[in-house]
TrEMBL record:
<feature type="binding site">
    <location>
        <position position="32"/>
    </location>
    <ligand>
        <name>a divalent metal cation</name>
    </ligand>
</feature>
<keyword id="KW-0119">Carbohydrate metabolism</keyword>
<dbReference type="InterPro" id="IPR000056">
    <property type="entry name" value="Ribul_P_3_epim-like"/>
</dbReference>
<dbReference type="InterPro" id="IPR011060">
    <property type="entry name" value="RibuloseP-bd_barrel"/>
</dbReference>
<keyword id="KW-0479">Metal-binding</keyword>
<dbReference type="GO" id="GO:0004750">
    <property type="term" value="F:D-ribulose-phosphate 3-epimerase activity"/>
</dbReference>
<feature type="binding site">
    <location>
        <position position="65"/>
    </location>
    <ligand>
        <name>substrate</name>
    </ligand>
</feature>
<feature type="binding site">
    <location>
        <position position="173"/>
    </location>
    <ligand>
        <name>a divalent metal cation</name>
    </ligand>
</feature>
<dbReference type="GO" id="GO:0019323">
    <property type="term" value="P:pentose catabolic process"/>
</dbReference>
<comment type="function">
    <text>Catalyzes the reversible epimerization of D-ribulose 5-phosphate to D-xylulose 5-phosphate.</text>
</comment>
<feature type="active site" description="Proton acceptor">
    <location>
        <position position="34"/>
    </location>
</feature>
<keyword id="KW-0862">Zinc</keyword>
<dbReference type="GO" id="GO:0046872">
    <property type="term" value="F:metal ion binding"/>
</dbReference>
<feature type="active site" description="Proton donor">
    <location>
        <position position="173"/>
    </location>
</feature>
<dbReference type="Pfam" id="PF00834">
    <property type="entry name" value="Ribul_P_3_epim"/>
</dbReference>
<comment type="similarity">
    <text>Belongs to the ribulose-phosphate 3-epimerase family.</text>
</comment>
<feature type="binding site">
    <location>
        <position position="65"/>
    </location>
    <ligand>
        <name>a divalent metal cation</name>
    </ligand>
</feature>
Length: 213
């Protein structure tokens, strides 16, 4: 079954604990934590202490999406804070293979994200090493943006070049709602990130269910 990862970017900062409990009880599988540095993307969000506080509170998998330059500087602290999955951007890294090994050496699962204009073929020679590929379906930096439709074709293409039997997660992030989810799952997505669709909906259970069907 597809794994649903609510993006805490859209949660109520002053009621974070309540929002996390709510999505946990509503059937979420992972918590998606968006880390932004104001350099790689034009926005600043959370650091490793935020992950630590959440990890102390929840049993859900902490899926940390690093939208930062030089992520290798911060991988040790995010891993120590309890990040279960650490995803770095292909566009933010010079030695991707080395950075992926570094994440795994620190005990976390390794993910690589690509921006909307990056070809999935760029990842062909790292697919044997990663646990997750994240296809961004908006330009990273902000929640609440419109889904970029050609992301569905990118998922299909990615699935076609994925090594057999490795069980690499194919994740999509940005503008995902119920109608789009169906097409993404059909194309091969195994994990869906959703911020606005889940947290802007009073009935989180219904919102999460609508992504799975
Ligand atoms: O990485 C992200 C933005 O850079 C967020 O995870 C993403 O935008 C989720 O929010 P929404 O579902 O509202 O688009
Ligand atoms: Co994200």
């Amino acid at each position: 079954m597809v794994k649903i990862a609510p993006s805490l970017l859209a949660a109520d900062l002053l009621n974070l604990q309540k929002d996390i409990e709510d999505v946990e009880e509503s059937g979420a599988h992972w918590l998606h934590i968006d880390v932004m540095d104001g350099h790689f993307v034009p926005n600043i969000t959370f650091g490793a202490d935020y992950v630590k506080a959440i990890k102390n509170f929840t049993s859900l998998t902490c899926d940390v999406h690093l939208m930062i330059k030089q992520p290798e500087k911060y991988i040790p602290s995010f891993a120590q804070s309890g990040a279960d999955i650490i995803t770095v951007h292909y566009e933010a890294v010079t030695h991707l293979h080395r950075v992926v090994q570094m994440i795994k050496d620190h005990g976390a699962k390794a993910g690589v994200a690509i921006n909307p204009a990056t070809n999935v073929e760029s990842l062909r020679y790292i697919l044997e090493e990663v646990d997750l590929v994240l296809v961004m379906s908006v330009n990273p930096g902000f929640g609440g943006q419109k889904f970029i439709t050609n992301s569905i074709e990118k998922i299909r293409h990615l699935k076609s070049i994925m090594p057999d039997k490795r069980g690499v997660e194919i994740q999509v992030d940005g503008g995902v709602n119920g109608d789009i989810a169906k097409k993404l799952i059909h194309a091969g997505a195994t994990s869906l990130v959703a911020g606005s669709h889940i947290f802007n909906n009073k009935d989180r259970k219904k919102a999460i269910k609508s992504l799975q069907n």
